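Weekly puzzle thread! Below is a chain. First person to post its structure in token form gets bragging rights.
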Amino acid sequence: MANNYTEFSIILPPQPGLEEFLENHEQHIAAMEEDERLEYGIGYEAEVVEEGLWIKDADGWSNLEGASYLIQRYLQQYRDAPEAVILEFASYCDKPRPGEFYGGARLITKDKDIAFDPYAMALAMAQKEGWTVYIPE
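Winning reply:
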């Protein structure tokens, strides 16, 4: 059996009252009963650091939807926050096998969470160009 991991780390800009915001968010999450964004648990760690709000995977295990939801709430809370955040991630397997390594990004706004799959994007580009592509099984 192999273990799969997804890692990410981002620091959002500092804002006034981040400690209170994070505490309120944690209470909000605890009160949520069933939400598909939290189907696999919270799956991230967050803490206020000097540089801002640090959000990262939970030791290689993560729920990107849960982290995206926290980022969305941050963007909704602070008027001078950026309009969008790009969260990059890397995924891998502890036993090297084809198809077990990939990365991606999520474009997160106040009300949207768009996932980007570089493999799918590259495949679509090759197909558009009419190139044949080797796809390992």
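Puzzle host: Confirmed. Bonus trivia for everyone else. The two ends are 19 Å apart (CA to CA).
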